[in-house]
Amino acid sequence: LALLMYIVYIESGYRPNPYHNAVHAASVVQRMHLILFKGGLMSNDQQNLVHDHNSFSYSAMHPLASSMLYPCTDVELLASYMSAAVHDLDHHGTTNDFLIA
Q1: Hey, CA dihedral for 46, 49, 51, 54, is it positive or negative?
Q2: Which entry of 9, 34, 38, 56 is 20 to 30 Å from 78 by CA?
């Protein structure tokens, strides 16, 4: 429950600007998951929490799945997802050049 409340709090911190908004943050979190999953950075136990292996074979899709050199820890996965979620928090929707001028 605390994590859900924190995620809702993060979402409320995004401004309604055209690009750097909550939808963009969700897109970046999804892309982070894709990088972690397809990049072979999740252990088999972590994959089982996320995907139903009755309908999807990770080992068949990714040749390194059984020989990962460095799967992320649970804390590293959480940090990756959370940093992706907050990367543009409270963004004003302007570029750095605009702010400098």
Answers
A1: positive
A2: 56
Answer whether residue 41 is part of any domain. Answer: yes
Q: Kindly state whether residue 37 falls inside one of the protein's structural domains.
A: yes
Q: Is 24 known to be catalytic?
A: no
Q: Is residue 8, in this structure, part of any structural domain at all?
A: no
9 is a domain residue: no
Per-residue pLDDT of the chain (101 residues; tens, 9 = 90+): 999 999 999 999 999 999 999 999 999 999 999 999 888 888 877 777 766 655 554 545 555 555 556 789 999 999 999 999 999 999 999 998 998 98
- Residue 81: partners with Cβ closer than 8 Å, 6 or more residues away: 29, 32, 33
Instruction: List the catalytic residue out of 20, 53, 62, 87.
Output: 20
Q: How many domains does the chain have?
A: 1
